[in-house]
Amino acid sequence: MNSKNNYIYIVNTLDLDTHLENVAFHNLIAIDTETTGLCPHTNKIRLLQISCESEPTLIIDLFKTEVTDLLIKILASEHITKIFHNGIFDIQMLWGAGIPVSPPYFDTQLASILVDNGLGLTHSLKVVTHRHLGIELDKTEQDSNWSVPKLTSEQLDYAAEDALVLLPLERELSKKIKNLKLERARDIEFGCLTGAAMLEFKGMKLDLPQLKVLQKEYSELKKKLKAELENSLQLDDVSNSTTLPLFPSEYKTKINLNSHHQVKKAFNLLGVPLTSTDKDHLSIYIGQNELIQKFVDYRKANDYLTKYLNKLERFINPKTGRIHTSVFQIGAATGRMSVRNPPLQQIPNNTKFRSLFVPEEGYDLIVADYSQMELRIIAEVCGDETLTLAYQQGLDIHSLTASVILDKPLDQVTKEDRRLAKPVNFGLVYGMMPASLVVYARSNYGVAIAQKEAEEISAKFFKRFPGLLEWHKQIKSQNTKIVRTLSGRIRKWSYPAPFTEAVNTPVQGLNADITKLAVSLLWAPLIKYDACIIALVHDEIVVEVPHAHAVETRNLVVELMQQAGSTFLRHIPCVVDAAICKSWAEKA
DNA sequence: TCAGAGTGCGCC
DNA sequence: AAACGGCGCACGCTGA
After folding, report:
1. Residue numbers of the domain that contains A125
2. How many domains does chain A have?
3. Which nucleotides of B are covered by protein (CB under 7 A)?
4. How many angstroms separate the CA of A83 from the C1' of C16?
5. CA A197 – CA A92 distance, rounded (Å)
6. Nucleotide nearest to A336 (CA to C1')
7. Judgement on whether residues A160 and A292 belong to the same structural domain of the protein
8. Same domain for A521 and A404
9. Is A202 within the bounds of a domain?
10. Are residues A176 and A40 in the same domain?
11. Which of the nucleotides lies closest to A325 (Cα–C1')?
């Protein structure tokens, strides 16, 4: 595609409004930016390109042009759909430049992911344009220097083309969305986009002094455990040698505790027949050798340090003083969001770690989450009568399962019984086999079950929840390469979907749909309270809000999360727990 | 020597 | 026939 002579390069403010007047009549415009870097808080927009049907592409040089009221009016207009590719980036860059762009949006990257979800395809503009339009884009100028005083004609051509191509791309992707009946999923994603951008843009505040306290605590713990383990775990089998070395430590090769290979060997030498060193296997021998527990503790301390405690500080943005994680709005094949750098969805869920995340002075956090969302979704999707009735009656589902598998009345179920039931519920609903349940219950819930017992539990469980069993059978018989959630969102496979994935996807995926719908309902009303979503962890939403508005905001969050949930849960009550907190650690 | 698969584990 | 799923990240190890 040659866009030469098909763009207007605008370098002074007077020209800008003249050319924008035509744009204002359109209801669909494509937007792209070229920036001096990737950070909306510290980098700048050099070029803002606007393209619409039958008009030359406008390339606005923001180093030479003032932002006019008309430009703002267009970008903030609720009558004009703005097409972006990876809009979460451009939107934040515009906000960073003080330009209040707002929906409606069409994001060609999100659209591309939606139509080919799960196949592991690339969704860069270059690849998407080739896949859907058969057009080869030349991206050689993409990483060129956009700060130079005089841009080259190659740079301007490139800038124009990237915006221009979004128009046919939108048409093609809209057609495919319609053909695949993905309109509902599209609306959820595009509606959620602003909230996702706000989350990333706003960031989270970290209690840095407390981080350092925790870092020191775990460094010392790790050091202590490391010394003890290195002393006791040896790689060379000295027990068989006839002569002992004078100074054993000088002969020994010091063990690397981060090498599972070496650790396995060392424990084998001590008579612990490990076949693997993951915590499932280690937990078998935990009472047999005290070094097992020490090693588990070492791993945890090491993990906490290398992944979180030693890493978080470097993510604090110099301009905002906050942590801005990278959001991938459709980051998982199921439709879930993922975030990275840092992985804020994987911060250890204990008071020490979660209390590191705090509101600004004068603000509170609203920590809200869906109660047992996945199990409720399963009840909705499989339609099992017993499960449905239990939720409708407000019964505790883990206690119910405990009574089923232990053959005792509900009112005689103890806390211990309930603890046994949790891994049974979480495992069996997704098709876990008895053998795995044994390991899963021991390793994650400290519950000891024998193989035979697990088989009986499984049998009783499915006898009592026949709708669930029927649902599993139905999925097994389907042998399909495509699975949908109730919103219509799809996940594709290039081969018949494995049973366990086919079971999990509509559940995990609908949870994502519901949370994203909640975000799309929430972000605008939150603005009125100067409140903002700052974290999403699949079924949990964290909002930062001025203290004065905390109560109304909490009520609003609960109401809209429930509304989102009830949109899809038609037979099962949707329960949201929410609390006003001084850190992420507190819960409802 | 270096990319990449493998192991392991944090969260939901 | 058999199977709980989805992520991001660290790091020792392998093989070209």
Report:
1. 7-180
2. 4
3. 7-12
4. 45
5. 6
6. C6
7. no
8. no
9. no
10. yes
11. C8
CA–CA distance, A475 with A435 (Å, rounded to integer): 21
CATH number of the domain where residue A526 is located: 3.30.70.370
- SS3 assignment for A495-547: CCCCHHHHHHHHHHHHHHHHHHHHHHHHHHHHHHCCCEEEEECCCEEEEEEEH
Is A257 found in the same domain as A167?
no
Residue A483 lies in a domain: no
Residues A17 and A105 in one domain: yes
A436 touches strand C (CB under 7 A): yes
**Under 8 Å between Cβ of A584 and A400:** no
CB of A279 within 7 Å of some strand B atom = yes
A257 and A232 in contact (C-beta within 8 Å)? no
Nucleotide showing the shortest C1' distance to residue A426 CA = C4
Residue A357 lies in a domain: yes
Strand C positions with any atom < 7 Å from protein CB? 2-13
DSSP code per residue over A163-191: HHTHHHHHHHHHHHHHHTT-HHHHHHHHH
Strand C neighbours among A 326-345, CB < 7 A: 328, 331-334, 336, 338-343, 345
- Residue A431 CA distance to nucleotide C5 C1' (Å): 10
Give yes or no for CB of A348 within 7 Å of strand C: no
With a CB cutoff of 8 Å and minimum separation 6, the contacts of A574 are A370, A373, A376, A561, A562, A565, A566
Indicate which CATH number applies to the domain containing A51: 3.30.420.10
Question: Do both A44 and A149 map to the same domain?
Answer: yes
Distance A287 CA to B2 C1' (A): 42
Residues A72 and A142 in one domain: yes
Is residue A158, in this structure, part of any structural domain at all?
yes
Interatomic separation, CA of residue A339 and C1' of nucleotide B8, rounded (Å) = 20
Task: Verify if strand C has an atom below 7 Å from the CB of A499.
Answer: yes
Per-residue pLDDT tens listing for chain A (588 residues)? 444 558 999 999 999 999 999 999 999 999 999 999 999 999 999 999 999 999 999 999 999 999 999 999 999 999 999 999 999 999 999 999 999 999 999 999 999 999 999 999 999 999 999 999 999 998 888 888 999 999 999 999 999 999 999 999 999 999 999 999 999 999 999 999 999 999 999 999 999 999 999 999 999 999 999 999 999 998 875 544 444 455 554 456 789 999 999 999 999 999 999 999 998 899 889 888 999 999 999 999 999 999 999 999 999 999 999 999 999 999 999 999 999 999 999 999 999 999 999 999 999 999 999 999 999 999 999 999 999 999 999 999 999 999 999 999 999 999 999 999 999 999 999 999 999 999 999 888 888 999 999 999 999 999 999 999 999 999 999 999 999 999 999 999 999 999 999 999 999 999 999 999 999 999 999 999 999 999 999 999 999 999 999 999 999 999 999 999 999 999 999 999 999 999 999 876
Contact A569/A562 with Cβ under 8 angstroms?
no
A157 and A26 in one domain? Answer: yes
Confidence (pTM): 0.95
| CATH number of the domain residue A227 falls in | 1.20.1060.10
